[in-house]
Amino acid sequence: MRYFFDNNTLFIRGTFRAASTGISGGLGLVSTIINQTVPTHWNHEGPEKELERVVTGAGFGRDYFGMLTAVPMRNLCVLQYDFVTVFITAGITTTQKNHARTINIITYSSQGVSDAALIETIMIATEAKVVALRNAGKSIPGTPTDAVIAACEGKKEHEYAGILTEVGKRVYGAVLYGIPVALRQFENKIQQDHKSFFIFSRFKGDHWVEWSPETCPYRPCHFIGQRCDFCYCPLYPCGDESLGQWVESSNGRMVWNCSQCTLLHEPKIADYLKQYPEASKDELLRLHRAKKRKI
User: Fold this and answer.
1) Which label site among 50, 213, 218, 221 has the fewest CB atoms less than 10 Å from its CB?
2) How far apart are the C-alpha atoms of 96 and 75, rounded to whole Å?
3) Do 19 and 143 fall within a single domain?
4) Tens digit of each residue's pLDDT (9 = 90 or more) over 251-289
């Protein structure tokens, strides 16, 4: 899975088995998932045509699921909880000035789940949204245009996604935490011009941590002049033993340790990946080796 932004669009690219309650949704195989910002007073021919215009303009195929929102993508929240990643945009303001009324949620699991579990993931995300809105003091359980997309990749490892399962508890936790943050950002209670990235940490007790290169206390963690655009590597876990290794974690599971890898921290590599966000690991390694030969 790779995700990147182009103007007002979040693109998530990969080879997904997905379920969607969004525009022209359903259940199927898709290569692209889209969350597209449209103007508040949007004059349109139809949401399907808008998404088709975006996909065609990006040069992608028509195997996609998508959703629309009036929430700017700078208010997007990305939450990483182990093998689950959740993307949230949320706006329920009803003032005359800004009447966005959509909460969009995309869940992604790097571990494959059954079709039934994909559908159950949508239910779990919706349940967490309702609880989060109630906890935030909102008087509504959602909006008429809310949408959820649940996607996965890889060999099927999970038959179920109920709230007590490995998938369900991560989706529930990420949505429960992310909804109020996304709402505060849209309501301008949090001032920033970039997307927010949160990671679930177990260091000194389970908690959510917002990461940004400007406030990271460990910077630079590799070398002076490093780039931190991809601190949380989009290639993880790459499995390339020239870049890292599998190690046993405290709970007995094998996890990928790439703490010594500096590939995406090299300025030239980081710039290249920002320009070509779907570049493969091998492509980046070739660029890295070519650079070393010139030194």
Assistant:
1) 218
2) 20
3) yes
4) 777 888 998 999 999 999 999 999 999 999 999 999 998
Do 92 and 166 lie in a common domain? yes
Give the torsion sign (CA, 106, 156, 234, 6): negative
Between vectors from CA 168 to CA 138 and to CA 116, what angle results, nearest 5°? 110
Residue 108 in contact with residue 13, Cβ under 8 Å? no
In a domain, 143, yes or no: yes
Classify strands 147-152 and 9-20 as parallel, antiparallel or unpaired: antiparallel
Question: Is there a single domain that holds both residue 150 and residue 11?
Answer: yes
pLDDT at residue number 261: 94
For residue 99, the one-letter residue type is H
- Which is nearest to 180 in space by CA: 209, 137, 149, 148? 137
Q: What is the CATH number of the domain that holds 60?
A: 3.60.70
Per-residue pLDDT reduced to its tens digit, 73-104: 989 999 999 999 999 999 986 554 555 579 99
What residue ranges of the chain have pLDDT lower than 50? 96
> Is there a single domain that holds both residue 65 and residue 34?
yes
194 and 241 housed in the same domain: no
pLDDT at 189: 59
Give one word for 7, left, alpha or beta, with left for phi > 0 and alpha for psi -120 to 50. Answer: left
CB atoms within 10 A of CB 48: 12
Are 35 and 174 within one domain?
yes
User: Which range of residues forms the domain containing residue 285?
Assistant: 222-294
Q: Considering its fold, how many domains does the chain have in total?
A: 2
* 57 and 191, same domain (yes or no): yes
Quote the pLDDT of residue 18. Answer: 98
Mean pLDDT, rounded, of the chain: 90
Instruction: Decide if 208 is inside a domain.
Output: no
- In terms of Cα–Cα distance, which of 232, 235, 193 is closest to 211? 232
